[in-house]
Structure prediction request, 502 residues.
Amino acid sequence: MLSKNDIDLYKQFVKTIFKMRYKGSILGFLWVLLKPFFMFLILFVVFSSVSGQVGNLTSQQYAVYLLSGLVIYTFFQEGITWGLNSIMERAGLIVKINFKREIVVISALTMALINFGINLLIIGIIGTVLGVQFSLLGIAYILLIGLVMFLGMYGIAFFTSIWMVYVRDLAHIMELVLQLMFYASAVFFPIELIPEQYQFIVRYNPIALFIQAVREALINQNIMNVKFVLLSLLLSIILIIIGNKYFKKKILKVAENF
Amino acid sequence: MEKDIAIQVKNVTKEFKVPVKGNKNTLQERFLNPFQKTHYREFTALKNLSFDVKKGEFFSVIGPNGVGKSTLLKIVAGIYVPDEGSVEVNGNLVPFLELGVGFNPELSARENVYLNGTILGLTKKELDEYIDEIFDFAELRDFADMSIKNFSSGMAVRLAFSIAIRVKSDILVLDEVLAVGDAEFQKKCYSYFDSIKGTKSILYVSHALSSVSRYSDRVLWLKEDRTYEIGDPAEILEKYKGSL
Prediction:
């Protein structure tokens, strides 16, 4: 069971990661907001000509369309990458003292979740400025999707964080996979732009389905892919249960294999 | 396990597989030599080792480099698992294989006290309560908000020691970390250990034979041929010195 100290340790780890990311920079915390904002701005300028082709969206709606895709993908990318590296990054600590190693993994994932929350806030602000109407149900649905993704990535990290210790190539492989996922998730272009025989890649890609659901909820106040989201929730919970068992067993030998 | 025993090590064996040529941690190496099995050199760090540390006892481990002293501490601390045998611990054990684990040079001394203290098992509430005493003991009150990277190594280790002695523990596992800092601070460290002698169980690994003989109730001598002797400090130390 979790002790008071475990919870404090979790908070300390998250705080430290957060402080370290922007330590020494002049704008500090502002970068958390500025980075996704500029990324969005670049894509928006480059791809705004496509907006008419994306289900006849107005350019305001296209902005939200683009932003939501970007935010979901970024959450996925950071969650997977940070989860994968979490144990390796704490090697120095793990070989010196015994503590609940899961805390390292969950703090890395929490960092991705915090960023996701901040990014959602940016969508909210930009959307409101652009005059997009948000529905309460839509927002609740998006939060559910965020939770499902968080749980799923936590489950995955139980495996990948251990594998990473033994096969260092995993970092590079994952980078490629994530790049592929970016295009396969139709983040900034409509699915119709992909040749028909390859469209199935997007249609069966879970990240694309999450993005689609979030977009619909934001732009059309429409709740879709409910079955898929609930199935993902169930699968994520199963993944966490199995992953947790796997992790507990394998972590015992990790300290001597760094 | 009997009530008056703090640590019980029973028939512990630990072997490590050391890859002879490089570390096959990348796929490249596996791709390039698919049929070449990775050759490992079996390295026996500990072999069939048994001993008890009694409650309140100061138990030291000595021996030349490479006889498994650090491995033993890591097994007792729960960082490694033994291949055979068992380790039982009766009480709250805190290992100090290094002082200041988790210290982050970029963070301030105060932030590091919270970070390191939490890693060592203290809660935030306890640290709020101790923080002034920690800085007083370390004589670093005026440096609390300075980054650790600007500390001298002596300052950092003084801070680390001052946190360490606040940790609630019945059993301490120490790897060469009895007295740190300059001569004056070392005096403070020694008087701390004088004050807790008999109240905490201590498993201590060191090459500093003078402190071993000063504090130990019993000494374990690990030898290169993986045999060992346990006994009275004066007797074991004399034999050990004779073997060198």
User: Anything to note?
Assistant: Chain B touches chain A through 30 residues (CB under 8 Å). Chain B has a mean pLDDT of 91. Strands of chain B lie at 5-19, 40-54, 58-62, 84-89, 93-96, 171-175, 201-205, 218-222, 228-231. The longest strand of chain B covers residues 5-19.
